[in-house]
Specification:
Mean pLDDT: 86
Structural class: mainly beta
Number of helices: 1
Low-confidence stretches: 3-18
Strand content: 25-35%
Order of helices and strands: HEEEEEEEEEEE
């Protein structure tokens, strides 16, 4: 009885993948070109899916693993710093990984990866072509949208260039200042703390007690 059930499940699994058509960007050589946004918005984005995607046999930077399935994208850096994001992820509850690689198809070198929905790319040479691989370690038929955005230049990377914040008169954050850490550097250790990167702000107290909040 156990052998019959196992064979039936294996047949259904094989049939499901055999009937699914592979995406057009199933391989590095047919990577979909991404247009780069000039700010942190994702106005320019393209839809994607891993449904029917196959294994590319390109070793991942994640401990040398080979993903179960993957799709490919490419873009040319227009700034030293970018952010690659996945949005509107739909489908089965499977973690989507983003991996950034450089080189030519067949000779790609992994740079960085993330199991989150976005990944920063910092300190790169403008004009360099990067490949983006979206993959999972389990079969999935979900969909997503992908974009490349560009953060504004950081002007408050050091304490001496801290941005002055406006103090709100109540607990509402009506007046807020936008910020990001993409491309920020390390200003040094503080006791036992050694930040990877930091940005700086300042404010003048208007009452004995204040609350500082990070939103969005």
């Amino acid at each position: 009885m156990n052998k019959i059930i196992f064979s039936l499940i294996a047949f259904i699994f094989f049939s499901y993948h055999a009937n699914a058509q592979a995406p057009a960007n199933d391989d590095c050589a047919s990577a979909t070109i991404l247009n780069v946004n000039t700010d942190l918005s994702c106005t320019l984005k393209v839809p994607g899916t891993l449904s029917g995607a196959t294994r590319s046999n390109v070793v991942s930077g994640i401990n040398g693993f080979v993903p179960n399935n993957d799709v490919w994208y490419a873009f040319t850096a227009t700034s030293p710093n970018h952010k690659i994001s996945l949005q509107n992820i739909q489908g089965t509850n499977v973690r989507h990984y983003i991996e950034i690689l450089v080189g030519n198809c067949g000779e790609l070198v992994p740079i960085t990866f993330s199991p989150d929905s976005s990944i920063p790319l910092t300190g790169v040479a403008i004009g360099t072509t990067f490949y983006v691989r979206v993959f999972t370690f389990r079969p999935t038929s979900g969909s997503f949208e992908i974009c490349v955005s560009t953060p504004p230049a950081i002007t408050n990377d050091e304490c001496t260039t801290a941005i002055d914040l406006t103090v709100n008169p109540d607990l509402n954050c009506t007046s807020m200042t936008s910020g990001h850490l993409i491309g920020a550097t390390n200003s040094g250790s503080f006791g036992n703390l050694a930040p990877s990167e930091d940005v700086w702000y300042s404010f003048t107290a208007t009452r004995p007690i204040h609350r500082i909040s990070l939103n969005n």
